[in-house]
Amino acid sequence: MRIYHHWRDLPEAARGATVALGNFDGVHLGHAHVLRAARLAHPDAPLAVMTFEPHPREIFRPDDPPFRLTLAPSRADALAAHGVEILYEMPFDAAFSQMAADAFISEVLCRGVGARHLVSGPGFAFGYRRAGDTAFLGARAEALGIGLTVVTPFIDAGGPISSSRIRHLLRDGTPDRAAEMLGRPWAVRGSVLRGDARGRSLGFPTANLALGRQLEPARGVYAVIVGLPGGGRLPGVANIGRRPTVDSASESRLEVHLFDFAGDLYGQELEVALIAFQRPEHRFSGLDALRAQITVDAAEARRRLDLAAPRSA
């Protein structure tokens, strides 16, 4: 997949695509539904996505807690897995936010990327103060010779599948239900930080990751699958929270113990997929009680991951 961070002076190979529009946070089943519609609209055209980085909400509501399901690298990987060939990742800042809706269509979509066809969900809004909607987009695009497909929401028993629903499920400690809407387990990706080696002293060495701008799910213990830099995958048990028994840190972090692994992961990037929530975070009477509980947690994680593993016929 080719990624562009601008719309001016693009090579011809980056023009003439069917372009799906939106934030695509999470790249969930609803987004996959939009991408299928985009592919069907013009099977002979390249499939592209135009999205925005950072997410506009991070600009307009900077004091909100982190909410991103996928940061840019994870989103790009997920879009590529759905067959997207071109990603226009537009830098979103104060100047871009003040672009008029008509200018976005004429300058960015038409003259800039030379879109052949546009695809969006019914709620797509754009331009200064979100003045543009799909009706405006369709009328203006038609005048410029660009087609538009507005895709109906992808619905399950609970209603339209959306990023906001998935965020609620993760905050409620139901990553398995979130995975059903994503089409894959939700994961935290980040570089391993140096910690205080407390886990090693307890007999359970951990790799520590900062959550950063990613959503903080329910605090507690999870059974996880960890993607390693070389492409391998290992089971493990993780805690997300502030370690109330040890130091009550001001910021939550993810600490993951990889089963049957010995090695130095400092500075390397891991992807920790949450498979099952086991228990909430709470304070223990001391390190011995904490060590005993981690032993129980690890055994329970092994059991859950064994049950979740696919079986051969």
How would you describe this structure in keywords?
14 strands, Rossmann fold, alpha/beta, Elongation Factor Tu (Ef-tu), domain 3, six-stranded parallel beta sheet, 313 residues, single chain, six-stranded antiparallel beta sheet
Question: What's a quick, concise take on this entry?
Answer:
The chain has 313 residues and is an alpha/beta fold.
What is the fold named in CATH at topology level of the largest domain?
Rossmann fold
Query: Count of helices?
Result: 10
Secondary structure: helix percent: 25-40%
Characterize the largest beta sheet: strand count, sense, and whether it forms a barrel: 6 strands, parallel
The name of the CATH superfamily of the largest domain reads HUPs
Question: How many structural domains in the coordinates?
Answer: 2
Largest beta sheet: what is the strand line-up? 1-4-3-2-5-6
Beta strands, count = 14
Query: Approximately what portion of the residues adopt beta-strand conformation?
Result: 15-25%
Shape: elongated
The top level CATH class name of the largest domain:
Alpha Beta
Unreliable runs:
none
Mean pLDDT: 93
The helix/strand class is alpha/beta
Provide the succession of SSEs.
EEHEHHEHHEHEEEHHEHEEEEEH
Radius of gyration: 22 Å
Question: Which CATH-level-2 architecture of the largest domain?
Answer: 3-Layer(aba) Sandwich
> Could you tell me how far the N terminus lies from the C terminus, measured between alpha carbons in angstroms?
35 Å
